Amino acid sequence: MKPTIENQFERGLFASRWLMAPMYLGLVVSLGMLTIIFCRELFYYAPQVFEMRVEEGILVVLSLIDLTLAANLLLIVLFSGYENFVSKFDFDTGDDRPEWMGKVDFGGLKMKLIASIVAISGIHLLKRFMEIGDTAADAKYGDKELMWFVIIHLTFVVSGVLMALMDWLQAKAYKK
């Protein structure tokens, strides 16, 4: 039997995980904010679709995809984080429950997070390249800014590969 003080202390530590709950509620509010921004963009550009050049249309679609990927990332962090660190969802969601829910551990969450960041960064980079004008005067960004966009994107890619390698090495070490 553990001493009563130690037992109470451990129960208090375990209960402190509920301090994360307001943060997850804040993420729900953030998801609502992204939804509003998505709808605002959609309703702003939809009436202009018949006057848009192809490049403008592609940039609008890429922006909407970017917002959707960010929202997907937010849901993954929200559901996985809550289930991993606070409490399991213990209600019957039926067939609507995403397959990955309850199966994504912290390592998996890390990999989904970096993969989403790389995808969002890649879309952002593609948008910047599509904004390159025919002349230097038309260009929204200079060579230096574009170079930094590429460097930052490659940093995300390399970080993702290194994180995957570390997880693979760690899993291999545990098998021994």
What does this molecule look like?
Its main location: membrane. This protein is mostly helical. The protein has helices at residues 4-15, 21-45, 54-85, 106-130, 143-175. It is extended, with a radius of gyration of 22 Å. The protein starts with a helix and ends with a helix.
Features:
176 residues, 5 helices, cell membrane
How many alpha or pi helices? 5
Q: What is the approximate shape?
A: extended
Estimated radius of gyration: 22 Å
Sheet with most strands = none
Beta-strand residue percentage = under 5%
The end-to-end span amounts to 34 Å
Domains (count): 1
Mean pLDDT: 86
User: In terms of per-residue confidence, which ranges show pLDDT below 50 for 5 or more consecutive residues?
Assistant: none
Q: Summarize the amount of helix as a percent range.
A: over 70%
Quickly describe the structure.
This protein is mainly alpha-helical and 176 residues long. The protein contains 5 helices and no strands.
Question: How are the elements arranged and paired?
Answer:
Layout: H1 4-15, H2 21-45, H3 54-85, H4 106-130, H5 143-175
Helix pairs in contact: 2-3, 3-4, 4-5
Family: Belongs to the UPF0114 family.
Transmembrane segments: 21-46, 58-79, 109-126, 146-169
Keywords: Cell membrane, Membrane, Transmembrane, Transmembrane helix
